[in-house]
Amino acid sequence: MALALSARIEEVPDGVSVSKKKVAKGTPLEIKIDNYSPEDILRQGVKDHSVESKGFQEEFETRRKKQDEGFMAIEQGLNTLKDMAQDIGEELNKQEQLVDEADSKIDKAGSDLKSTNSRLKESLTAVTVQVIDTLLSLPLSRLPDSATLSLSLSLWSCSLTP
């Protein structure tokens, strides 16, 4: 069985045209790593390719070219993604400045609004106190009716509560 396998392996064309030695039955098979003699190496056609090995090499080169083209496409895609990421980063930096600016303006507007509300409350309290003082200084005959007085007092009490 080993001899049959060895014979089948030897029959496969590998591009080497060295004459094969026949092995007699029962003779141990020798494996030599360097089985070329100097005459074999100098002989014409020793390293010629067989049809199968040429086909294999052509297929290898074709697949290699396709793989290289695929790698080029991937490289171009990665370069495009890199450029897009850089553009997005620059845009985010610009937007961050605008957001910070808007945030500071909103904070200032909030502070201004609190200040204005505080001054308005002080003004309303002062006016309410003046109205009540005026009402209290009037003679009884000139006092407004009870509904108006009640409204004035409720406004005054609301303005005094924090």
From TrEMBL:
What name does the UniProt record give this protein?
A: t-SNARE coiled-coil homology domain-containing protein
Give an example GO biological process.
protein transport
Identify the InterPro entries for this entry: T_SNARE_dom (IPR000727)
From the Swiss-Prot or TrEMBL record, state where the protein is found.
Membrane
Q: Which family does it belong to?
A: Belongs to the syntaxin family.
Q: Does the keyword Coiled coil apply?
A: yes
Tell me the keywords, alphabetical order: Coiled coil, Membrane, Protein transport, Transmembrane, Transmembrane helix, Transport
Q: Which CDD domains does this chain map to?
A: SNARE_Qc
Superkingdom of this protein's organism: Eukaryota
The chain's coiled-coil residues are 78-112
Which Gene Ontology cellular component annotation is one that this UniProt entry carries? membrane
Q: How does it sit in the membrane?
A: Single-pass type IV membrane protein
Domain named T-SNARE coiled-coil homology is located at 61-123
Q: Does the keyword Transport apply?
A: yes
